[in-house]
Fold:
Amino acid sequence: MNSEKIKTAVIGASGYTGQELLRLLAMHPAVELVAVTSRQEAGRDLVSVFQRLAGAPSVEGLAFISPDIDAIVEAGPKVAFLALPHGVASEYAIPLLERGVRVIDLSADFRLRSAAVYEEFYGHAHPAPALLDEAVYGLPEFYRDELPSAKFVASPGCYPTGVLVPLVPLLKKGIVKLRGINVSSLSGVSGAGKKTEVSLLFAEVNESLRAYGAPKHRHLSEMEQELSLAAGSEVTITFVPHLMPVNAGILTTIFCEPEGDFSDLSGRVGAAMEECYGESPFVRILGEGGFADTKNVVRTNFVDVGWVIDRRAGRLILSSAEDNLGKGAGSQAIQSFNLMNGLPETCGLLNF
Amino acid sequence: MNSEKIKTAVIGASGYTGQELLRLLAMHPAVELVAVTSRQEAGRDLVSVFQRLAGAPSVEGLAFISPDIDAIVEAGPKVAFLALPHGVASEYAIPLLERGVRVIDLSADFRLRSAAVYEEFYGHAHPAPALLDEAVYGLPEFYRDELPSAKFVASPGCYPTGVLVPLVPLLKKGIVKLRGINVSSLSGVSGAGKKTEVSLLFAEVNESLRAYGAPKHRHLSEMEQELSLAAGSEVTITFVPHLMPVNAGILTTIFCEPEGDFSDLSGRVGAAMEECYGESPFVRILGEGGFADTKNVVRTNFVDVGWVIDRRAGRLILSSAEDNLGKGAGSQAIQSFNLMNGLPETCGLLNF
Amino acid sequence: MNSEKIKTAVIGASGYTGQELLRLLAMHPAVELVAVTSRQEAGRDLVSVFQRLAGAPSVEGLAFISPDIDAIVEAGPKVAFLALPHGVASEYAIPLLERGVRVIDLSADFRLRSAAVYEEFYGHAHPAPALLDEAVYGLPEFYRDELPSAKFVASPGCYPTGVLVPLVPLLKKGIVKLRGINVSSLSGVSGAGKKTEVSLLFAEVNESLRAYGAPKHRHLSEMEQELSLAAGSEVTITFVPHLMPVNAGILTTIFCEPEGDFSDLSGRVGAAMEECYGESPFVRILGEGGFADTKNVVRTNFVDVGWVIDRRAGRLILSSAEDNLGKGAGSQAIQSFNLMNGLPETCGLLNF
Amino acid sequence: MNSEKIKTAVIGASGYTGQELLRLLAMHPAVELVAVTSRQEAGRDLVSVFQRLAGAPSVEGLAFISPDIDAIVEAGPKVAFLALPHGVASEYAIPLLERGVRVIDLSADFRLRSAAVYEEFYGHAHPAPALLDEAVYGLPEFYRDELPSAKFVASPGCYPTGVLVPLVPLLKKGIVKLRGINVSSLSGVSGAGKKTEVSLLFAEVNESLRAYGAPKHRHLSEMEQELSLAAGSEVTITFVPHLMPVNAGILTTIFCEPEGDFSDLSGRVGAAMEECYGESPFVRILGEGGFADTKNVVRTNFVDVGWVIDRRAGRLILSSAEDNLGKGAGSQAIQSFNLMNGLPETCGLLNF
Structure:
């Protein structure tokens, strides 16, 4: 019965994040897609662009439209997902919110609470600083209570999700020191988007391992904001992203220095994780000695978290795996959507 | 004129390291291969096992023989490369040395100076502790003076090479603190050897990113030994290796805390590198902002080294790339061979 | 309501086909898993072996059991999937059928109608020739009418599915000549199973393209049986499989010589496809000029089919893509399961 | 002694073919690079663009220059390699030839003897039909006698090399029928060049298998020209190229129908190969049952050739492997260069 379904729009649906949103929304039992936009694909059938979706009853007959606000609003969406580049998203978020559409923005535009930090990291003034306070940071494991009533959600970045899920519980409990946190993250290539750059060509990335973007990747601002909130004190970390020859997946390895005695460290880590994620269906705790593997999470909304203790050097090593397009983007946004709409958190997201 | 060439044996030549040695020795202008052993391929022509080598004049007609000491010695080698598993290498190193053959051992058996550390990390007593003092650690950039007269060389491990090359110059100069060094290394699959284990099957490794072996990988012992020697004081580090879906290459990212002022840090790092590697043809310094990429070094003997400075968090990040089978194993052993035999260091190794 | 669900067993569930069956059955709305066997994993929780499935309500608490017929039957399954090697499957199929369990066998044991052809291609006498007539060939697009009442289904091989789907409609209509059909198929590595062989190691397969198994791959027998049935006359084809560095997917390119005039050839091909697959939700016709791409079908039950016409050389080229573990194995078996149990053909299989 | 070396230019050196030429010419003992051009990289050091080449004595200090004819000629090259797109190459070939520079053109501009066929396949009139007769087709195995005196060489395409090497000897001897030759070729992505197109991005190609370009790929014209010359009669074939997720390598599988008796077919095939390639150091015959594998030939100038006989269906299946950038482009051009300059055919090309 389509009448009960939630009318939904996807703005900017021809990139990898848009494609992942469509893949999941196409089979989401509570969603009716009413508007799917793409500047460059406007007028074409969804399935002619995404052959993979051919055969999904809910996208049959659906065509991309131009990203015109009036046309979008006319289609009657209750919720709009924005899968647009940062800087562009605000041009859609503001008018859609004004016209009563709830917005889930997957760009970086509204993730930071400080316009100054945005300007420092993104290199230009924030386009709508007044809205920064309205957006809920859509990491449901931490903002589950704010999401049901949220009109505006800023869905987290892919790297921040992989860093925050293992670290936040430990910072909240004071289990690790605030200084000296070093993060090495490995990302699949879809994380760079569908950009036609030489550096993203198959023959450049395949059989190549390289770091990039350090020491001041834009996502660092978002990580430090949420880590500082968890710690109740300012946290500055070192973050090095790497580009890996896989389509999807982020593996994060975090080096940190524990507070207190090592004898019960693993127990304290486990208890903090359990307290934080006991009710969270998408965080899977691997325990001490568990190494997360991206192949277990790609195309899902799960984050796997494990840890090992280096007693010789006095370090705790955390390991997390997620799908950069899934829990790091599309499916996490749908998890927020579910909570915003009173649906079970896992609705449409239990894929394996 | 074969009469001037150096008669050379390769013991244990059917694995990936042996194959890389053969690939390079086959075209080395000063080498005559006189014995190539493999327990499982004995009797077969080299080219029937390694089709890739078909057409190399120097391996035409050569067959694998059984690894029998008498048979090897009878072939008259001046130098023998051992590409055997640790624990097994000493069974060949000792008798070959006794019979006057210079030995370059690519296993871990003689890299450590302490039998106790060997036992701690390898889980069994050292098979020939008396020989530990005789072996020169075959990292030519650091032991260039000892190699010409060496009878016995313990060629370094793949991970240690990628960690030591960037760090040793800085520790020698006191540029980084001894505590809190965190290392994330990413290795291609050939580093695990030609083992028929489920975890190394294509369908398990491809599209997968995962850490393993932490917190006490065996190579850690070797890294800490050489780092401590460079620092003149005991150094304990945290090391996390990762298995990556590429055939070859190791990318190493090192987080460390600088000593002294940040204003001239990059200059001090550069000067230390220059002082250490100014005469080293195989270390290529990328400078500040340079991110090493394994695709520039695979199938070569080069190590590329770059660094970035994280002023916000007070960290120096070093980046190195090497080929685990090349500078991390086979070609590095040949670099030692060249020095042992009075040949130009680059002889047979300038491949691009 | 579990009481309405169909109690289901999976025999031999630790290989790649078993894993794919579990992945799909875990979320199948009409299935209750009551027995999952694995000789080597017996006693272990499913999720401890397959971390990817952790979080699926229906596998929570389920453990592998030994493949003991009594234990399996005791669990009360109405249907058992056999994901066993050929030769072994019959040892389970016969007693399970005798005890009233409907069997879907994914091995090659009961796909051929002739015990003599089985012996010719598999190199040993057929273990249960009397049962050959009872098994329905589980390619639902061709045997949709026989499946609802079938007690015993022989699910097709991966290569045969990719060859039969494009060719059968044309042979039925006499659109292509019976002689001179040449097939080149490219398969992902999971098609070779989870075997610990050197040739399947990552470092052997990655960056490698090679043919194998020609001219008499075992699947040829199965293809020719069904092609001959479609043509009403004996068809002998040439088939060359290739091993490709992807996890999953089979791309098949078929060269054949058309009968009759070229002017309306594409129309006749399209009409034959439409007549054959108009009611088939899992065959997606790309039309003339459409090149199938495995990335659009992996992890789904779809087969994409396109064609081009080479007027210069007088040839019709067919192209099909499927997932070797999906439509070529696990999901196709579940498609048969759905039909056997009066469920919608797409039940549990509309994943994108 | 640089004075004896052959002054050499590479025009259009920033693409993949140019890069491969530079990689090989940098270590070629008889070559002095005097001019290396790139419109987009003009002014930059070679090693700043190709970090992989850093450390090669012969490229140290060399910078890209603009592709200006006067500047090139002034540098004094005896030979110029053109690694330019088709259509552009003739703009350089003509003036360079006029000014006495021998030209090896790696584009498609002068491979065809017929301007009409060029126009049919390339869609525009040939830019310099008068020169078509002057160019020698630079497949040294077939034109070894013409190359020493050639002023102008049209180096073959990558696909044609892989098709011609196995087929020409058989057509010359009348061993296979001229009708019904079907070719399936699988190419690594570098074959498509360094083009910034969505379809060549890592995330589009990785884990994807697809055909393209059939039924009338441009290289077909070149194949048929040379096959017809070998057969002494017009040959029309069917050719289907596929894009594979590897960096380099072409695997070609050829289906053909033998003439005469099958009993001595393999012997006749072997004899024809031996007669044709007995003196050819770069063609390695694998014999009956030998399946060529691209991993044995990438980064070399070798072509491996094997075959199997399908007695059931009456077909001979040929298999060849080459590197599309090597024997299919750069190293083959250097093989011609060697013959043009009286050097050993293998000079600078025996890499493994």
In short: The first helix of chain D runs from residue 16 to 25. The radius of gyration of chain D is 20 Å.
